[in-house]
Give the backbone structure.
Amino acid sequence: MKDVLDELAAVRRAMGAGSVPAGEAYTIELRRRYDAEIDDVWDAITNPERLQRWFKPVTGDLRLGGHFSSDGEEHGEILRCEPPRLLKVSWLYGPDADAWTGTSEVEVRLAAGPAGDTEFELIHAAVVGEPLFPTYGPGAGGVGWDLALLALGRLLAGGEITGHGEFEKSPEGREFGRRSAAAWGQAHLAAGGEPEHVAAAVEATTKFYVPDPA
């Protein structure tokens, strides 16, 4: 359990504002350090064989201007690709980007650290309509990215999480989900969220990711 919670504490989270072609957006930002060379981290986030081990199976025309899809859910276009430092994609859910699913972009920036490590930054800018953001706040996407970065960290350390669904149902996975939702609540407060709204959003996010056992 301690290593999982240490991974959660390693991430710096922020909520901000940005824009995408669809309009004004809010951003969730995750920053952390990985004890791995920048080329190794870049390969882990762009190599389909390694992507499926920590994220999801990704297929498509994986080059600048090409389109990708991940396990029939997220899909989009590769907007920028500057190895080994910058990857930016449009990030859509389902066949259409409507008021419920929203439309968004994900950008990953890597910087080589002084000791053979890598500074990792992920920014997800999203236009999200009712009721997703008002109900869940930044935890709507933030908890999912926390889980992904945990899995990426384990892969880079020589291991991996097998069966994401199984992990999320385990005691340590459930505790991770609760603490991640709370951490995104703190980021929401720091960005000026109203305390009552933030508390309700954290509760809704926690119930979504950590449902009561059947």
Summary: The helical segments are 2-9, 38-46, 48-54, 132-136, 139-156, 164-169, 171-190, 195-209. The mean pLDDT is 90. The beta strands are 12-20, 23-34, 58-60, 67-70, 74-82, 86-93, 103-112, 118-127.
